């Protein structure tokens, strides 16, 4: 059974005002002093962010429990220095991001200018184990049209600099300012994948292979495919659902590759439109069907995703739990809907943030 690991980026905020606080260095110092937390939390580009990574898991219930534990531990560490953590993909309140002191981060600031200074967004990355780079590349090629559906399910960033953007996932629109971000063309083989990344690095536009910010890529650190398309999810159970769907997609794609089934040959132009549509409306309106690239009701497209990976989910014992989790998500709404409902109820973006601090820990 394939292992799955999750990396979540959390926003550090003032528990009273809801404003982001550049306190990551202090939080990480606390984490390093605790043997149990060493290696769990990592430095990020901005001082207002804190990242954690779970251990690889085969059981999705265990993975969900670890996500909750990591979130609670992040909250404890932050609370010790007077701040809180919120699983928000963008800050609802205005913020001037603070770039962490680091040679690599300074290079990014000099190379990309204002795009770096405005990139305070929090994502969720899911790693799924693969047997080889060849299998991994085959998976990357075959999951491409389904990734916008995952973006829609995770959507959790309706606000930007104190205003409603009209999007469910504005994080994804900001993230796409990086020159190497977004969907990819078909690679066809691991050799072509690595050659493409090497050619990108050779241009000097990106620093190294770590900056191949594809929506799905071969991890440069682990024997995994890394899916990077999602917002950080407001609720831990949505993050667990996302990871379960990703593993199902990876396993289904690998089976198709072994069976000689060719990937859909959609252009990057169409895939970008599918991602834009998912970011705009989330799982609440219409999405582009991954097979036809024509608009369909979001519920129909999400059901098509579940049907597509049903055999893989059945084999891991996750099918019924995934059906239930998707039904729960439909009733509750994505993180963007929850945030907008909070604003309508309270009239205050500060109150939205403080409520989301509570949602983050369940």
Automatic annotation (TrEMBL):
InterPro entries: GCL_type2/YbdK_subfam, GCS2, Gln_synth/guanido_kin_cat_dom, YbdK. HAMAP family: Glu_cys_ligase_2 (MF_01609). Keywords: ATP-binding, Ligase, Nucleotide-binding. PANTHER family: GLUTAMATE--CYSTEINE LIGASE 2-RELATED. Belongs to the glutamate--cysteine ligase type 2 family. YbdK subfamily. This is Putative glutamate--cysteine ligase 2. GO terms for molecular function: ATP binding; glutamate-cysteine ligase activity. Its EC number is 6.3.2.2. It catalyses: L-cysteine + L-glutamate + ATP = gamma-L-glutamyl-L-cysteine + ADP + phosphate + H(+). Pfam families: GCS2. GO terms for biological process: modified amino acid biosynthetic process. ATP-dependent carboxylate-amine ligase which exhibits weak glutamate--cysteine ligase activity.
């Amino acid at each position: 059974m394939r292992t799955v690991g999750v990396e979540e980026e959390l926003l550090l905020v003032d528990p009273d005002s809801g404003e982001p606080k550049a306190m990551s260095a202090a939080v990480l110092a606390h984490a390093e002093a605790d043997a149990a937390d060493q290696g769990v939390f990592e430095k990020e580009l901005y001082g207002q962010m804190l990242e954690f990574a779970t251990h690889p898991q085969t059981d999705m219930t265990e993975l969900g429990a670890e996500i909750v534990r990591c979130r609670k531990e992040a909250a404890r560490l932050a609370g010790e220095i007077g701040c809180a953590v919120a699983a928000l993909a963008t800050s609802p309140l205005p913020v001037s991001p603070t770039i962490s002191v680091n040679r690599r981060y300074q290079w990014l600031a000099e190379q990309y200018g204002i795009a770096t200074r405005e990139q305070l967004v929090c994502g969720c990355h899911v790693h799924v184990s693969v047997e080889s780079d060849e299998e991994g590349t085959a998976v990357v090629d075959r999951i491409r049209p389904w990734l916008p559906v995952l973006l829609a399910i995770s959507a959790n960033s309706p606000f930007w600099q104190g205003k409603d953007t009209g999007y469910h996932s504005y994080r994804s629109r900001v993230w796409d300012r990086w020159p190497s971000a977004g969907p990819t063309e078909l690679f066809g083989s691991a050799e072509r994948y690595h050659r493409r990344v090497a050619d990108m690095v050779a241009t000097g536009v990106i620093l190294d292979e770590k900056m191949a910010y594809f929506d799905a890529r071969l991890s440069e650190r682990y024997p995994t495919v890394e899916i990077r398309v999602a917002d950080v999810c407001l609720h831990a159970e949505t993050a667990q659902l996302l990871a379960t769907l990703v593993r199902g997609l990876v396993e289904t794609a690998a089976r198709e590759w072994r069976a000689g089934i060719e990937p859909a040959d959609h252009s990057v132009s169409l895939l970008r439109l599918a991602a834009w549509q998912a970011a705009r409306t989330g799982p609440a309106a219409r999405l582009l069907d991954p097979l036809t690239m024509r608009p369909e009701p979001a519920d129909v497209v999400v059901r098509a995703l579940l049907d597509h990976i049903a055999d893989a989910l059945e084999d891991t014992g996750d099918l019924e739990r995934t059906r239930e989790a998707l039904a729960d998500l439909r009733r509750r709404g994505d993180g963007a809907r929850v945030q907008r409902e909070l604003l309508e109820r309270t009239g205050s973006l500060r109150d939205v943030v403080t409520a989301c601090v509570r949602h983050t820990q369940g």
